[in-house]
Structure formats: structure tokens, C-alpha cells
Design a protein that fits this description.
mainly alpha, globular
Length: 294
């Protein structure tokens, strides 16, 4: 039984890291799409929500839920929409690497917010691991001051990501993961719609044919699949572990971005040294968890 349990855990971790790999393409696709940040998130959430609605209809899953649960899902979707606007906005005003690596501070924000929002006991080991990632990010960006705007927007996005992941964990054991994703992505679309009407013009949603191709990949492959499956994963793996594993997203993303975009994505040596610290926080966590269990 122990062997089967271990294999099950390993399967969940491998699945989690495959999802992280898929997510690492989002910053790259956001850079490849020449349309505005708002257009990217606006159409991404709309297409993903419609795709999930079709899937739920074919699966004959009932959409009716209580007003209280609907309100929580819509609130989480609101946070998700703001997070994506920050994430893609950071890449647009700086580089894909900046956007991805600031996202690595999510685990630190999770370690601070989860005891408050999730009513979880404060874990100093998690805070230390999160701080290790933050120190890594600080080293990276102490030499990249020309990207200050992208850094600040990215850090805000990481804070929002930590918050919506914690709130999501309250829903994972009670509802179908695709149902949760449908309502949350619908709410994220509404956020973009409101932002559009308040601050943007019709031309800001313009998309070229090439943009539409990349956007469909982003919405269907890098949104519908990872978002729904990540919710399902949180039924078995803690929120902090999920967010800490997401620290690997910038590693995959930075490597891929360099091969795709070339020299424009090359960063300083200090940037990569800081990246080693971020990676260390990911690989130390399983050892500390095992020690705690023993």
C-alpha cells in the first residue's frame, strides 16, 4: 500500500510540473502577440470560458450553485483577471524574464497570506523558503533597475496570484474543477470588460490574424487545461507546495524565451545567480517536508 501511495504522490508531482511547463509558455505567447495587454487577457478569458461552458454542457454538469459559493468563485475570478493583467503587463513593459521571475515571489506571499486568509498555522520554514525566493529575486533585479515598472507590476501580480490560489483551495474539494474554472474565467473576462469600458478605446482590442493563432493556443492549451487541472491538484497537494513549484515557471520560461527571442532576453550574470536561489527554494521544500513528517 505504501508503494502505491508513493507512486500516486509522484504521479501528482509529475503532473504538477507538466502543468508548470505549460504555464511557462504564457509569458512567451503574451510577448509573441502584438496586441495590447488588455486584448490578450480579454480574449483569452472569453475563449477559455466559452470552451469550458461547452465542455460542461457536453458532460451534462449542472451550473447551479448557491449564491454564497457563486460569490466566492466570482471574487476569485476577479483576482485572477487582475493577476493576468499584471502578469502580461509586466512582460509588455519589460521582458518575459522579468514577468516570470517576479511571479516566483508568489510562494513568499502565500506563506504570509495563508495563515490569515486560510486560517492555517504560521509555518516559519515556509516563510524562510519564500524569503529565499525573494532574496533571489532581489539579487536579480538589483542590477536590472531599468525594468522597475515591470518589476513592480509583476510583484503585484504575484500577490494577487497568492490570494486567489488560497481562496481557490476552499472550493477544490466541493466542486468540479472545470465548473470552478468556468465561473472564475467568466469573472476574469468581466474584469477585462469593465477595464475596457472605463479606460480603453475600441482600437485597443484590435487583433491581427497572427495574433489570433497564438491567442487560441494561449486560451485553449495554456489556460483551460492548466487552470482546471491545477484546481484538481490542490485536492492532494498543499497550496504552498503548488505555488512553490510554480517558481520553476520562470526557469522554463527564461530558457525558452532566450531561444525564441534571442539577445533581447539575455540578462546579467547576477540575474542568473539570483535564479539559483529561487530554484533552491523549490528543491529544498520536499526535503524539509519529509523531515517534518519524520
Amino acid at each position: 500500500m505504501l508503494g502505491f501511495s508513493f507512486l500516486g504522490i509522484m504521479r501528482d508531482y509529475l503532473k504538477l510540473h507538466f502543468l508548470v511547463l505549460l504555464l511557462s509558455f504564457t509569458g512567451i505567447l503574451g510577448k509573441l502577440i502584438e496586441a495590447s495587454t488588455l486584448a490578450v487577457v480579454f480574449y483569452r478569458t472569453l475563449i477559455a470560458a466559452l470552451a469550458l461552458f461547452l465542455i460542461l454542457y457536453l458532460r451534462k454538469v449542472k451550473l447551479k450553485i448557491s449564491l454564497r459559493d457563486l460569490g466566492l468563485m466570482l471574487f476569485v475570478g476577479f483576482l485572477l483577471g487582475l493577476h493576468w493583467l499584471c502578469f502580461f503587463g509586466s512582460a509588455k513593459v519589460s521582458t518575459v524574464a522579468i514577468s516570470l521571475v517576479t511571479f516566483s515571489t508568489t510562494s513568499f506571499f502565500t506563506s504570509l497570506l495563508e495563515p490569515v486568509l486560510g486560517k492555517k498555522k504560521l509555518d516559519f520554514k515556509e516563510i524562510l523558503l519564500g524569503l529565499l525566493a525573494v532574496v533571489g529575486v532581489a539579487i536579480m533585479f538589483s542590477f536590472e533597475t531599468q525594468y522597475l515598472a515591470g518589476i513592480l507590476i509583476g510583484l503585484l501580480g504575484a500577490l494577487l496570484c497568492a490570494a486567489f490560489t488560497i481562496f481557490n483551495s476552499k472550493l477544490t474539494h466541493r466542486f468540479d474543477s472545470q465548473l470552478i474554472s468556468f465561473y472564475e474565467l467568466s469573472a476574469a473576462f468581466v474584469v477585462c470588460l469593465v477595464v475596457y469600458f472605463l479606460f480603453f478605446e475600441k482600437s485597443d482590442l484590435a487583433m491581427s490574424q497572427r495574433d489570433w493563432v497564438w491567442l487560441l493556443v494561449l486560451a485553449l492549451v495554456c489556460t483551460v487545461i492548466p487552470h482546471a487541472q491545477m484546481i484538481k491538484i490542490m485536492q492532494k497537494i498543499s497550496v504552498f507546495t503548488v505555488n512553490l513549484s510554480l517558481n520553476l515557471e520562470p526557469v522554463y520560461g527564461v530558457v525558452l524565451a532566450y531561444f525564441i527571442f534571442g539577445e533581447s532576453e539575455r540578462m546579467s550574470t547576477q540575474f542568473y545567480l539570483g535564479g539559483v536561489l529561487v530554484l533552491s527554494s523549490v528543491f529544498l521544500q520536499p526535503f524539509l517536508l519529509k523531515r517534518k513528517e519524520n
